[in-house]
Amino acid sequence: MSLKLYIDWLSQPSRFVAIVLNILKVPHEIVEIRIAEGKQRTPEYAKINPYRKVPAIVDKDGFQLAESHAIVKYIIKSRNIKTPLYPDDPQQSAKIDEYLDYHHTGTRKLSQYFFNLMVAPKLGIETTVNLEQAKKEAIFALKLLDTKFQTQDYICGKEITLADLSAYCEIMQLHMVNWDFSKYPNILNWMSRVTQIKEVNSGHEVLLKIVQKIRSKPKL
Amino acid sequence: MSNTLTLYYNPISMPSRAVLTLLTLGNVPHTAKVVDLQKQENLTPEYTAINPCQGVPALDDDGFKLFESHAILRYIVNKYQLHDFYPKDPQEIAKVECYLDWHHTGTKLVSKFVFDHIIGPKMMGRPAPPDFEAKEKEMESILQFIEYVFLGQGKFKYVQNQPKMTIADLALIFEIQMLFGFNYSFDKFPGLKNYVQHMSQVPQIKQANQAFFGMIKNAPLNDFIKGLIQ
I need a surface site. Which of A43, A188, B16, B107 has the fewest CB within 10 A? Predict the structure, then answer.
């Protein structure tokens, strides 16, 4: 039995895990769970992940785990992988943890905006989220990172870490709503640094095809 | 151990109480400095230099600054080797981390509900959002998930069936105790009720709750809650 990774390529944390596994060359099998088709709600999937979300893993010995940040840290620890993406040094790993924790209520606001603007109407889902408020929170999160990139190349300093990969998967999604990044030049520069990693690009192939279709429409 | 840690905290802030409790449980020498949120001390340039997100808690370890309570908890565990409060096995670590990640968009909705609909209107004169019933339902579905998944339908003594209390429990308990301010009846969730009972009686957790209990002691409270805040 191999390590199985349950993902939807349209899900940001799914792409994050897939990209990290590829960069670290951890052998795994991908099982697609398409959210748009409701596959996460099947009883079979609930047995794998009671949270009914993606991503999730089932390791070789049957160990099940959800939550993208917990998953990548588990892979690194259990395989004893030494990587600058998440160093052993307590202060360096604490700084990465600081970003990864903040991400859930910080950078993820970008998804909330994106989901409520683009996806919910298409799926016929009613939400009570105030779009103007969601956009404000998205802008706040972007400004925070844009300011950071004025003085350093990556979120935690000179080297790329798990923080950048998790953030990138969220932020690039704004291309789907034709977001005007010209106001955030430092983020654009950071994105071009991150996309020099080939696994980041291959992890976004499905999405990039959709972005190209959207690029022809007017900006927000 | 030398005293290099300064913890910036607020006695009502739930993540602050979690970190304070770990420091006490681990006998870690530290200096605790209160950040007065009502006076907006967290918005001052001095505090923003310590924590650019302007929240509490934040840590300064001899110049190394850190925010986000879970990152701080892990850093303290690592630095002082507090393995009583964090597993060593990678799979058990992963289970604790899974809870800590889920917490931000799961458990935090419980305390958000209490702040938005009870503490905000009753103690801070803020208008309550319009959707009380929908938010109460959402809050209860979170409690149900905690009971069913993280407490194993009430069979686990600690989150994720760990043999001893971990930082996941410290993160969870103070959030759930905010329901005391709502005079919540925990009877719907017997596993959670048991958990709240035994965790609330841990002396170091009681100690961290003094300011919060002082705040609610004169409100109408059911006997279960009254018994736990003595």
Answer: A43
